[in-house]
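INFO  loader      accepted 1 record
INFO  loader      residues=494
INFO  predictor   begin
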Amino acid sequence: MTTKLSLATLDAVRAKAGIPNYGRHDLRAGIVHFGVGNFHRAHQAVYLDDLFNMGRDRDWAIIGAGVLPSDRIMRDKLEAQDFLTTVVEQDNNRTGAHVTGAMIAYLEPGDVPAIVAQLASPLIRIVSLTITEGGYFIDPASGVFDPAHPAIAEDARNPLAPKTVFGLILAGLAERRAKGIPPFTIMSCDNIPGNGEVTHAAVSGLARLSDPGFADWIDANVAFPNGMVDRITPATGTREIGIVASEYGIDDAWPVFCEEFKQWVLEDRFPQGRPALEEVGVQFVPDVAPYEHMKIRILNGGHAAIAYPAALLDIHFVHEAMAEPLIRAFLEKLEHEEIIPVIPPVPDTDLREYYKLIETRFSNPKIGDTVARLAQDGSNRQPKFILPSTADRLRRGDDVVGLSLVSALWCRYLAGKSDSGREILFNDPNSDRLHAAALLAKDDPMEFLALSDIFGDVAQSDLFRRRFSHALKTLWEKGTRQTLQVYLDGKLGE
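INFO  predictor   done
INFO  writer      dumping tokens
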């Protein structure tokens, strides 16, 4: 017997899961959030829920917003349960569930007038985003905002009918400016180095295409704090929905599963105020960059490193990949010999101890994180998580045997079949182009490195070209398992 999750049924849910100690009537909106996916509901929404449960800052509730078809699906499911979410936290020794209520509404995707009106409300003092690494219209190779992207060009031509997140944000800022309402702070919660600066470039860059004076006003008046976010949060499927129903008796259309660990490091630049997130574990620092480098290179880079050998060996779950001795040893060698040595020092942090924590988190069998999730969207993730370490080592004159192997594994994966012959299904906006290049690269590895929008200057390095070509040739001739062993034996670069 299950209980359909709603405000009216919280007392029934209380027997097996934690529930908010505040009512919906206690909350007022202070944040509009674009991109209400699993990570947001397991991270920012949880921090705010914790704060509200302390009786603090209940005028900072969330209103959701979005522009994608998937946003509509999420909105409909959450609206049917009064925007409540069951969050199941799991580590190696403990599992627990609680319901969060920090979101109080979700605007209809595509309803531009309603979204702009909400953005223009004086109550809204922060606009936050989790729109994925690929949502910022960045040229992958250069890391610079791309004003020629068709979606950006369309919004520049029609600023009163925006279709992108940044076009909507600009429309809200324009209305506030016209009414003399101070601008909200714009806070990215995506895994991008300098995510505040990247967001600033997108917002200001779009404005400059149609109104340079407005762009100047944004540069002078709008805050874009950088932040580092961290919590492993797998996708929700029938497995997760079934577990919540069977173990907690809750009928939740889209629960969130995540690890117990969470981290949020932020620059304290919020001119219109902010919730007291430091009370619930958020770390405010003058410079987020060292923490970003650490997390993006070691954790996200580590995920990218193990995804493709695991997929080629037909491994489904991440913890199963970590249980494969070759993959675990490959990750450890890569991190300690090539990634960690080019990461700048992080205050009060031992990078090798941080890696041990990452290794433990990756090995958590309760999370159910999938290799397919890690492998998706490589055309956006490789230039952000792997290739920066490669570029740094090349600039220093260091070897890149392991990092070149990561790129070669990605190429081999994109050829479309695992070592056993199983067909691989891609989830990447550039999958057709990548697949074609990967097939050509079997005979000529330079065909893959010719993807200049991804590899940029790295592909011009003779050393990288040699290492990549040798690794890819070895993968095709010997297979993934034997190639990993050759690397571990220190013979791949010979």
